Amino acid sequence: MKITMLGTGAALPDPDRGQSAILISTDAGKHYLFDCGEGATRQMVRANINPADVGLVFLTHLHHDHISDFPYFVISSWMLNRTGSPILLGPKGTKNFANHLFEDGAFRADFLARSAYPVRKDNIEAVRPDVREIVPGVVYEDSDIRITALHVDHLPHEICECYGVRVEADGKVVAFSGDTKPCPAMVELARDADLLIHECTFPQSFIDHRAKTGVGTYSHTSPLGLGLIANEARAKSVVATHFGHFDSTSPVLKRAAAKHLPVELMGPHLMEDVVRDIRKNYQGPLRLAHDLMRIDL
């Protein structure tokens, strides 16, 4: 199994990181995409993966930084001669999201123009996703992979359900948190996993700042919390990801983040603090994700 970290950033446009997207490729050559934030499709091409070969997309929740590249992924796959419909798994509301995109939605003009060409008519199903809204439990299984999803704690369910996942393929287990604060479901999903890929959006001081100011959700996992989860779950290795721009030196991001983050604390030095705090509770193999990082299991 190969894991490619296509995007490792969060909600703001970051010059150094794309938004959330992880590609899992099995030994048999099948590809499964978990989240589809900005840049995911382009990053696949950079990683020498044809987006048209990705058969399934799983959206952990419907925040824009986890879904914004999905229409580009579908239309690009169509233009790259995908055959059949891509499967789209996601929480309640995913059908509404997908139904407002293509032939009856935002990209209707593009759909009508391209579908007039015979070669596009021949693969019209490529731009008609097979959308399946999920409930907790085993949500997908084929000859190569088994995906189990559980609710995690990020947003109120009346706004949007949020899921973490456990992926079993090629005799290995990978758990992915989506976005969440520490919760028992992630410990269950990551139990004895070969790899835990977990959000580490902000250091604790940044989470505390957001909770105090009331700007944006603060239901995220700090490095200390991630270490506790990994230790309790007995995860064999950990990749921290979904970094919330706290390490950025971009003047644009610092100005934009002034109401959201304690910008006077921002900078690459905080990555050392991230490692230090994770290590207080977890001593196993640890990596900090970057875009296009490849992990072989």
Automatic annotation (TrEMBL):
Keyword Cell membrane: no
Alphabetical UniProt keywords: Hydrolase
Gene Ontology terms for molecular function: 3'-tRNA processing endoribonuclease activity
Enzyme class: hydrolase
Top-level taxon: Bacteria
Domain Metallo-beta-lactamase residue range list: 18-205
EC number: 3.1.26.11
InterPro entries, alphabetized: AtsA-like_MBL-fold, Metallo-B-lactamas, RibonucZ/Hydroxyglut_hydro
Protein name per Swiss-Prot or TrEMBL: Ribonuclease Z
Organism: Ottowia thiooxydans
Lineage: Bacteria, Pseudomonadati, Pseudomonadota, Betaproteobacteria, Burkholderiales
